[in-house]
Design goal:
With 95 residues, the protein is an all-alpha fold. The protein has two domains: 56 residues, no CATH class; 33 residues. It contains five helices and no strands. α1 packs antiparallel against α2 and α2 packs antiparallel against α3. The longest helix is centred in the middle third of the chain and has 18 residues. The radius of gyration is 17 Å and the shape is elongated.
Length: 95
């Protein structure tokens, strides 16, 4: 079973490694291979595609835009954004 997962993973990576448009498919494909949960993988892929279609940006770009400080931010919004940045630093995520 483990070898089957490795072969499927290599197969997926080799076909999708140069495709920037299909990069959103890698996460759900990995979820499908590791957990076997088709519903979770399809929901993940579908939501990513819906967000990209509605906004014209990827999910990551939308999150970066939301976290960017703006002049009209309330004190609460500034507090939340600061806490998110602190948490990301503690988890070693990049901004």
């Amino acid at each position: 079973m483990f070898i089957k997962k490795i072969i499927i993973g290599i197969f997926i990576l080799s076909f999708l490694s140069g495709c920037a448009q299909n990069a959103a498919l890698l996460g759900p494909a990995y979820t499908l291979v590791t957990t076997g949960n088709v519903y979770q993988a399809s929901l993940s892929y579908g939501s990513e595609q819906a967000i990209s279609k509605l906004t014209g940006k990827s999910t990551g770009e939308n999150i970066k835009e939301i976290l960017r400080p703006q002049k009209k931010d309330t004190k609460f919004e500034k507090l939340v954004k600061r806490r998110v940045k602190e948490t990301r630093k503690k988890l070693n995520f990049t901004d």
